[in-house]
Write a structure and sequence with these properties.
By secondary structure, this protein is mostly helical. It has 6 helices and no strands.
């Protein structure tokens, strides 16, 4: 009985990590599409969002089946609820990666406003967040989960930086307003994607410690 439950829980974790990997791939490809003005790559990211949605539904159904068949308690039940909660955040993270790709597709039709520096850096920090998050789950490491929260603070700082820069562009040359607003939307998508990864990290901490953890900015 215990062995069957362990197999089921491990399968849930593996599938959830696969979903995280898909979102990571979407984020990386969307960022490259933005920088390289690659319309085909952006369209591929948009199409991949359906895979994330389908995987979310599959894992959720598997989790419900595990509860019904094995009636887990204590830490096992906490893990299942952590996964179910994380699915929503990972699905939304995938949506934001898709939104970046949609805006990259739009921007690919005209010359870039400027050489992108801060936006791809936001994308790189998000990839680091996802790598660290996956490692924290695989190694059951609370310290790594807390590192994800620190990385999200860095993403937030970059968001504020790029927003200020784009506002300056618009004030100095009103002809840049349309592109600048689209780029601000990209930055916002990155920032929101990071917030959803932060939510998952907080839930991993709950799974591993039993304590409901909220980053300081979430406590208000």
């Amino acid at each position: 009985m215990r062995e069957a439950l362990d197999r089921a829980l491990n399968q849930l974790l593996e599938e959830t990590l696969r979903m995280l990997s898909l979102v990571r791939e979407m984020t990386q490809e969307a960022t490259e599409a933005l920088v390289q003005q690659d319309a085909a790559r952006a369209q591929a990211v948009i199409a991949k969002d359906k895979e994330v949605d389908a995987l979310e539904l599959k894992i959720e159904n598997q989790a419900i089946a595990v509860i019904a068949r094995h009636q887990p308690v204590a830490t096992d039940l906490r893990l299942i609820f952590t996964i179910i909660k994380a699915l929503t955040d990972l699905e939304r993270a995938g949506d934001y990666a898709m939104h970046v790709a949609e805006d990259a597709l739009l921007l690919s039709k005209e010359p870039p406003l400027k050489r992108y520096v801060t936006l791809p850096e936001m994308g790189r920090r998000l990839l680091e967040m996802m790598d660290t998050l996956g490692q924290s789950v695989a190694e059951r490491d609370t310290a790594l989960a807390r590192k994800v929260l620190e990385l999200d603070d860095q993403v937030d700082g970059l968001y504020e930086e790029v927003t200020r820069e784009l506002i300056t562009y618009m004030m100095e040359d009103p002809r840049t307003i349309t592109k600048a607003l689209t780029l601000m939307r990209v930055a916002r998508s990155y920032e929101r994607l990071g917030d959803h990864l932060e939510n998952v990290a907080e839930r991993v901490i709950y799974w591993l410690t039993g304590e409901i953890y909220k980053a300081p900015e979430d406590a208000y």
